[in-house]
Amino acid sequence: MSDNAKPRKKLAIVSCMDTRLVNFLSERLGIGPGDAKVIKNAGNIITDDTLRSLVVAIYLLDVNKIMIVGHTDCGMKSVDIEDIKNKMIERGANPYFTPNLEQWIGKIDSEEDNVIKGTDLIKNHPAIPKDIEVKGYILDIVTGNLKQLC
Ligand SMILES: [Zn+2]
């Protein structure tokens, strides 16, 4: 991979796809273009696909620091699995698709616990080298305050 693909701050950030988090990287963390690899999904959950992107970032793009940034008032805490399931079926999705929809969609119980769990998962994952710095944060969506959790 070209050196241009490598993030200047050797940093990867995993955060939520929440629409309110569009500018927080530049506004709250001073992250500009070229600085960091950013992986977003609903609820900043560490899935196999998140880990795949982190492995590419670490081994090919020289990333040595990972930040997981969750946020207060995350929609994945209040997501209604039955509602999603009903809407999927209404719109023609196969009702037998992904029987464990709760796990697949990734409903979370607590934004903070979700960040701590994700941080532990990365730290203890067999594909992640032990010298990688992994830290978890929660962003208060109202005040903009970023608090380190672990
Ligand atoms: Zn969220």
TrEMBL record:
Similarity section: Belongs to the beta-class carbonic anhydrase family.
Necessary cofactors: Zn(2+)
UniProt keyword Coiled coil, yes or no: no
Cofactor remark from the record: Binds 1 zinc ion per subunit.
The keyword GTP-binding belongs to this UniProt entry's keyword annotation: no
Alphabetical list of Gene3D superfamilies matching this protein: Carbonic anhydrase
This protein's name: Carbonic anhydrase
InterPro entries linked to this entry: Carbonic_anhydrase, Carbonic_anhydrase_sf
Name of one Pfam family that matches: Pro_CA
